[in-house]
Amino acid sequence: MLKPLKLFLCLVFIIMLQVSLLPASLEDPFKPNLLIIFICYLALRGGNSVAGALVAYLSGLLHGSFSGFYFGLSGISFLFIYLLLNKVSDQLYTESIPLITTAVFVATLVDALISLLLVALFSSESAIYLIILSNMVPHAIMTALITWLFFSTEQLFRKRFAL
Predict the structure, then answer these.
(1) How far is CA 15 from the centre of its chain?
(2) For residue 12, how far is the Cα from the chain centroid?
(3) Is the separation of the CB atoms in 11 and 38 below 8 Å?
(4) What is the C-alpha radius of gyration for the chain, rounded to an integer number of angstroms?
(5) How does DSSP assign the chain, residue by residue?
(6) How far apart are CA 25 and CA 57, in angstroms?
(7) What residues contact residue 30 under an 8 Å CB cut-off, 6+ apart?
(8) pLDDT tens sequence across 66-95
(9) pLDDT at residue number 102
(10) CB atoms within 10 A of CB 56
(11) What letters, b where the CB count within 10 A reaches 16 and e where it falls short, cover 69-104?
């Protein structure tokens, strides 16, 4: 019971950071997507795949409602990323910091590519393609850097304070 409560509080904190503090302090291509980090963590280190998939989809819908982008697009891409990572998580050493950093980097690129594909299929706007393509790599690098920084610090605190 304690782990779901911790994950819920972490999700609330991440959403508050994602929608209030980060847009005010960072420019667009350099804003990390903290929800993708959470989804990758949940897929690689979480247990229940049905509850995790529901959390991934609902957090994507929440992200879409605050981002101003097409509603539901993040929900679909977050769900796809979660299912893909959860499927391969049994064969991987999920405590590895380089693994989760690489997974977040690839997941951020996959999120952008899924968004690009779905916008190309269901929208007639052509200016959005250039925005997605130009922001894709800096966004992925920044998100991976924040992931590495967070999990390295978390591992250091865990060893130092024997948590």
Answers:
(1) 11
(2) 14
(3) yes
(4) 16
(5) -HHHHHHHHHHHHHHHIIIIIHHHHS-GGG---HHHHHHHHHHHH---HHHHHHHHHHHHHHHHHHH-S-TTHHHHHHHHHHHHHHHHGGGS-TT-HHHHHHHHHHHHHHHHHHHHHHHHHH---SHHHHHHHHHHHHHHHHHHHHHHHHHHHHHHHHHHHT-
(6) 27
(7) 138, 139, 142
(8) 876 777 888 999 999 999 999 988 888 888
(9) 94
(10) 30
(11) eeeebbbbbbbbbbeebbeebeeeebeeeebbbebb
Residues in the chain: 163
Token couple for 56: 């991934």
Q: Is the dihedral of CA 39, 45, 49, 54 positive or negative?
A: negative
Span 135-146, pLDDT tens digits: 888 989 999 999
pLDDT at 49 over 70: yes
Tokens 């997507």, residue? Answer: 33
Domain boundaries, the chain: 34-161
Tokens of 28: 């667009």
Take residue 32 and report the two structure tokens written for it: 């990390």
Q: Is 107 exposed, middle or buried (0-12, 13-18, 19+ CB in 10 A)?
A: buried
